[in-house]
Amino acid sequence: MKYARLTKEQFEELHQEFINFLATQSITADEWKKLKFEKPEVAEQELDIFSDLIWEGVLNKVNYLEHISPKQLMLFHITEAFMELIAIKVEDDSIDITTDYGYKWLQQNLHNDAVSLYTSTKAITDDRNKDLFVLIQQGAVITKGELYSYFGDLLSD
Fold it and tell me: What Pfam families does the record point to (predicted)?
């Protein structure tokens, strides 16, 4: 398995897609029930293959990731060749940028000595999607890139 097995909730959400996947494997509903009972290891493999297919499809479409913690904002823009990072770190212990107050404070105090801004560009490795999956496992979420654009525009001024 390349990524991680989908959760029970994710499988429930993708119920129809999973049925279609089984159909492409020429596995009927009755055969699936029998497979789960008689050859659970084979059924487990099918769940893993389906999970990887779903992850691969999702990761292929990712252009932006964000990882927000109380003291750090990490914004990623992913292209075919590069991963660009805007990182913002807050050194003031009284500020938590995951709160409305803290985020507003950050917007108004980007040039404060307690705020450090970094940018970086890194070449994508041979396995782009695996790199993205690692970031997601570490807490990054897929976004449309609004924060990246917002802070990118501020930095370019």
Answer: DUF6495
Is 82:124 a contact under the CB 8 Å cutoff? Answer: yes
- Enumerate residues 6+ apart whose C-beta is below 8 A from 132: 59, 62, 65, 78
Phi, psi of 67 (to 5 degrees): -130, 115
CB 62 within 8 A of CB 136: no
- Cα 62 to Cα 78, 96, 145: the distances in Å are 7, 27, 10
25: amino acid identity, one letter: Q
Would the pTM count as exceeding 0.90?
Answer: no
Sign of the CA dihedral running 76, 143, 10, 31 = negative
Any idea which residue has 């999973």 for tokens? 18
The 10s digit of each residue's pLDDT in 67-98 is 999 999 999 999 888 999 999 999 999 999 99
Q: What is the largest CA-CA distance in the chain?
A: 65
Which residue type does 156 have? S
